[in-house]
Amino acid sequence: MGLFSKKYCCLCGEKVGLLGGLKLKDGDLCKECKKKLSPFFDDGKESTVEDIKKQIAAREENYKQLDNLQINKIYGEFGVILIDETNKKFVAVADTSDGLFKSPKVVKSIEDIKDKNPDIIDFKDIEDVDIKIIETTREEKQTIDGQQVSYDPKHYTYMIGFDVIIKVNHPYIKTIRISLKNGTVQIYNEGRRLKDDYVTGFIRDRFGITRVEDRAVHYDNLTIQNIVSNAMKEMPEYSFGFKCTLKNYDSIREYAYYLALCDDIKTTLLNK
Prior knowledge:
By secondary structure, the chain is α+β, with helices and mostly antiparallel strands. It is 23% helix and 28% strand. The radius of gyration is 24 Å and the shape is globular.
C-alpha cells in the first residue's frame, strides 16, 4: 500500500481528503461526516466505526430534544453557556460565529445556536468546573524626542481572558472549554498590578483575609459630572490591585463583571 493510497469514508463511502478528516481505530471519516460529531469530541483514534455511528445517532436525537430545554440563564459573548435550571441541564458552544473572520452571534435563545446542535449535558454528569483566567501584559511607552521610552514608573496594559472548563462524564465528551469574551479585557495600569507575594498570600488564605489583588471597591456613580468632580474623592486608589484612574475605570468594572460571571456559572453548574 503506497504512502498516498486512497482512503474512503467508513460511513458515506466518499474519498477522504488529506485535510479535515478523522482517523478512527478501524477506519477513516471524511470531513463532511466529521461535522456530524460533537465539536468537543477529540478521541477519534480510540473510537471504532461503531462508536461513531452511535454518536451520530445520539446527536440526531439530541437535536430533537433542544426545543424541550427551558433556558433561563445565558452566559458569554464568544463562547456561550445556556442553562436550564428547572431540568438541571446545559448546552455550550465554543464559537458562536458562523465561520472564520465572522463576528460572534448575540445569543438570546436556543434558536440562535440550534444549527450547531449543542450537546445537552445533565448537571449530574458534571465532574468539575474550573475557571481559568489568562493574563498577559505589555509595557506601554511614550515618545520623547522621537524615541520610544518607558514611563517612570513603567506603565502596562493587562490583557485578561476568561475560560470556563467543564469536565464531564459523558459517552463521547471529556472536557468542554468555553472562552466567554471575544478577545480580552484590557486594563491600562500605571505601574505593576499589586499582588501579594506567595507567603503573604498563604497567610491571608489561612486566616481568611482577602488578598490584595482580590479587594475591590467600585465608584458606582456613572454620571459624567460626578465622575469628573468627585473622582479623586470617591474613586478608590486601587481595585483588584489596579491603580484606579478615569482612563481604566470602565475596564476594571468589566473585569469585575467577568469575575462575577465566572463565579455564577460555577455555582449554578455545581448545584446538582
